[in-house]
Amino acid sequence: MMIGEVAEKSGFAVHTLRYYEKIGLLPLPDRDAGGRRSYDAEILGWLEFLTRLKDFGMPIRDRVLYAKMRAEGDQTIAARRALLATYRDELAHRVASLRETLDVLDDKIATYDKIAAATDGCPK
Fold this sequence. Notes:
Helix content is about 70%, strand content about 5%. It has helices spanning about 5-10, 15-25, 40-55, 60-70, 75-120, and strands spanning about 30, 35-40.
């Protein structure tokens, strides 16, 4: 795939893809005879994973670190796992907090529903 196709399918701008290559988030692609970037289909899965890492708040320095370890191969599996586990724990804490907040909002909405039902929707 050419960079434009990767951009279209992934939702990333061409400029962003080039930047990600420069900082090491993306492996350097092969080049065709004309010198144009040529990516394999696996890049889309990697970009999706990078998006997930960003979405849950992993800073770019740690995404770059993860990408570098990934490029080094299987000897970095334990380190990659440890890095992801750190963020997983933080994310689990945020999810629990959001669930508590959702419960509070649901209780408040239920209270308003009861008031509305008791007053035919017109509180006095």
